[in-house]
From TrEMBL:
<dbReference type="InterPro" id="IPR001173">
    <property type="entry name" value="Glyco_trans_2-like"/>
</dbReference>
<dbReference type="InterPro" id="IPR029044">
    <property type="entry name" value="Nucleotide-diphossugar_trans"/>
</dbReference>
<feature type="domain" description="Glycosyltransferase 2-like">
    <location>
        <begin position="4"/>
        <end position="125"/>
    </location>
</feature>
<protein>
    <submittedName>
        <fullName>Glycosyl transferase family 2</fullName>
    </submittedName>
</protein>
<dbReference type="Pfam" id="PF00535">
    <property type="entry name" value="Glycos_transf_2"/>
</dbReference>
<dbReference type="GO" id="GO:0016758">
    <property type="term" value="F:hexosyltransferase activity"/>
</dbReference>
<keyword id="KW-0808">Transferase</keyword>
Length: 311
């Protein structure tokens, strides 16, 4: 295997070297693509020093040297990556020594286009730990509940399997054939400042043949600290619902233009509509809920129903 590791860099000076070193430990990693997104700390300077130290490390910025967000930054990384396989790593996270163990065997089967695994958590600050646990309880492993491949992965992510599939797997634990991304014209939605990873993974699971790898123990670690975007927004607050609506609007528009299974399209619509209703106010809100329940009574069974019923 020859792997390009894409690392988007924004205000990660404290963690970046550890992330890069964790990727350099693998012979399979032929290049590390750092894409710096106009940090306000000294991340760019650290990137420049790392490039000098190791020829596998390559540094890019957006053509205008501006800040464009994680989606656009990862897309630039995809454009610059040269290897047959692509993996991702956030600049404040790191790989474990078993990161590509499953991939070495699974990718011998040419029909497999992507492999995903589990990631663990390391608390770097007490404040970050408290915020993370308030939102996600005491979850030590971001993973799925059972092995899956092909269409079952897509169905699982949408909650359409008989057993609960689990949480979205993390980009840090995903390895994908670059040819699959090119064939299906898959990129990150640059209009989503957050949740562009969930949007990408859902579309990837539909268009590509994915298979679970190591899901019972971590192959990478997420660093939790004070500045994690994922912990800053209170779940089911108005801001949370606004950002979820952007995500599910993106998926709704995509599903509408693709021939996905009817139950998948319906699930995406109902989730999109739940967050849309949650943001309406006054009597108009209850009128819209009433009309939607008449048209689609299933909306009362979605896990997001209380986002609009209780707010």
């Amino acid at each position: 295997m020859q792997i390009s590791v894409i690392i988007p860099v924004y205000n990660a000076s404290e963690f970046l070297e550890k992330a890069v070193d964790s990727a350099l430990q693998f012979d399979e990693v032929q290049e590390i693509v750092l894409v710096e997104d106009k940090s306000t700390d000294n991340s760019l300077e650290i990137c420049q020093k790392l490039v000098v130290k190791n020829s596998k490390i390559k540094l890019y910025q957006h053509p205008d040297k501006g800040n464009h967000g994680a989606g656009a930054t990862r897309n630039l990384g995809l454009e610059k990556a040269n290897c047959e396989f692509i993996s991702f790593l956030d600049a404040d996270d790191y790989y474990l020594p078993n990161r590509f163990e499953a991939e070495k065997e699974i990718f011998k089967h040419t029909k497999i286009e992507g492999v995903f695994g589990a990631i663990g958590v390391e608390y770097l600050t007490e404040k970050g730990k408290q915020a993370f646990q308030d939102k996600f309880k005491n979850i030590s492993l971001t993973t799925v509940n059972f092995p899956a491949e092909g269409e079952e992965v897509f169905r699982g992510l949408l909650g359409l399997t008989t057993k609960v599939f689990g949480t979205f797997f993390h980009l840090n634990a995903l390895t994908i054939r670059k040819s699959a991304l090119i064939k299906n014209d898959l990129r990150f939605n640059e209009n989503l400042r957050v949740h562009q990873d969930s949007d990408f993974i859902t579309k990837l699971a539909y268009h590509c043949y994915l298979k679970s790898g190591i899901i019972d123990k971590a192959i990478a670690v997420r660093g939790v600290h004070d500045n994690n975007r994922i912990t800053k927004i209170v779940r089911y607050s108005r801001e949370y619902n606004q950002r979820q609506l952007l995500l599910w609007t993106s998926l709704y528009n995509w599903a509408d233009s693709n021939s996905i299974l009817p139950e998948g399209k319906r699930k995406i619509y109902l989730t999109y509509k739940s967050f849309d209703l949650s943001l309406k106010t006054g009597l108009n809100k209850y009128f819209c809920i009433f009309l939607e329940v008449i048209k689609n009574p299933q909306i009362l069974k979605t896990q997001y129903r209380f986002t609009y019923l209780n707010r």
